[in-house]
Design a protein that fits this description.
179 residues; 5 strands
């Protein structure tokens, strides 16, 4: 029996704490199942993760084998406000696809095994197009409550039915009918 190479999976969270942590937990579970993971943060979050690992005393080795950390710029200047979610989403959908393509090309050039899968945060949908270009299959991951996701998927219908307007403000659709 020959030694089989581990399947290489890319993991890409949305760069917010409530998204990075669950995807890191998922990465550990993937490694336990025999996968090799490259966890891709933004440069800013990567610095925070590495600092947190150093604080635990284990450094990046504390991740154990199987999880490789990589990072790409988020497209915002150093002095820009990363708490402004609209600015953040706009910057990374415009700038990060190119950076992700470069990272994948660099990893291949460095002899890393080709990724077979991308586990991407639902909010990082732009990455699915990049994955397709490289022949990488995608799984989208929603880290919050399922009810929130189900509700989000229904928003267009709620607007169409007049229950909320396009700003999310509750309409009077129901009470008017009752009069």
């Amino acid at each position: 029996m020959g030694h089989m190479a581990k399947t290489h999976v890319l993991v890409l969270p949305m760069p917010c704490q409530g998204h990075v942590t669950p995807l890191m937990e998922l990465s550990h579970l993937l490694v336990d199942q025999g996968f090799e993971v490259t966890f891709i943060n933004t440069d800013v979050d990567h610095t925070l993760v590495v600092a947190a690992l150093d604080a635990t005393g284990g450094g990046v080795a504390a991740l154990g084998g199987g999880i490789h950390l990589a990072s790409i710029p988020d497209g915002l200047a150093d002095d820009e406000d990363r708490k402004d979610i609209n600015k953040l989403v706009d910057a990374y959908s415009r700038h990060m696809p190119g950076y992700l393509e470069s990272l994948l090309a660099d990893m291949e050039a460095a002899g890393r095994p080709r990724a077979k899968w991308l586990v991407g945060d639902v909010n990082m949908g732009w990455s699915f197009e990049v994955a397709k270009k490289f022949g990488i299959r995608v799984v989208s991951f929603w880290p919050a409550a399922t009810a929130c996701f189900a509700f989000m998927l229904k928003i267009p219908k709620l607007v169409e039915d007049g229950l909320i307007d396009d700003k999310g403000i509750a309409g009077c659709g129901l009470s008017e009918q009752g009069r």
